[in-house]
Design a protein that fits this description.
Elements: E1 6-9, H1 18-23, E2 27-32, E3 37-42, E4 45-50, E5 53-60, H2 65-71, E6 75-80, H3 86-94, H4 102-106, E7 110-112, E8 118-120, E9 125-136, H5 145-151, E10 160-172
Antiparallel strand pairs: 1-10, 2-3, 2-6, 4-5, 5-10, 6-9, 7-8, 9-10
Length: 173
């Protein structure tokens, strides 16, 4: 990715408030291979340290087109954008890759990382993540029922949690 104007940094060198980066700025979760890949906007997730590794965790509903691509991949990318890309993030969060070529509609330029994961040239920050653990959320495991009632009243199932090692981080120079 160096040839695209990125420099490799350590996960611990990511600047700024990571909670805001995910919750307010949003991210694209992208998975698949050169033949078939897709992306979706997300703002549920986080980063931290687990099992002596830098990790990211994301939540994806099984109904999402990206879900099956994550399931069939060793990993995925998380990419972050400047505020000028808010319309792109909105589009990628409201349209399905099943129904249209939302990547083309969004004006994103795909490329593949050294690990073979799909990402986009327009991102200001890209994390390459290799899956370590995944599990479905279960209604019976909610200790506090408020999130269940607040976020799972519409059609669609509970999310699947993916915990992934952050293997590489790329920062646009």
């Amino acid at each position: 990715m160096k040839d695209l104007g990125y420099k490799k940094i350590k996960p611990s060198e990511i600047e700024g408030n990571l909670i805001d980066l995910i919750a307010s700025d949003w991210m694209l979760v992208t998975a698949g291979d050169r033949q078939k890949f897709n992306t979706m906007t997300a703002n549920w997730g986080g980063v931290g340290h687990l099992w002596n590794k830098p990790v990211a965790f994301v939540f994806v509903r099984p109904e999402r087109f990206t879900f099956q691509l994550i399931e069939n991949s060793e990993g995925f990318t998380l990419s972050f954008y400047d505020e000028a890309y808010r319309n792109v993030l909105n589009l990628c969060g409201t349209k399905s890759g099943r129904d249209c070529n939302k990547i083309a509609e969004a004006g994103l330029t795909a490329h593949f990382t050294e690990s073979g994961y799909p990402a986009f040239k327009e991102a200001k920050l890209v994390m390459e993540c290799r899956k370590l653990y995944a599990t479905m959320l279960e209604k019976e495991e909610f200790i506090d029922p408020i999130p269940l009632k607040a976020h799972y009243t519409t059609k669609g199932g509970l999310h699947k949690l993916y915990i992934a090692e952050i293997e590489k981080v790329w920062l646009r120079q």
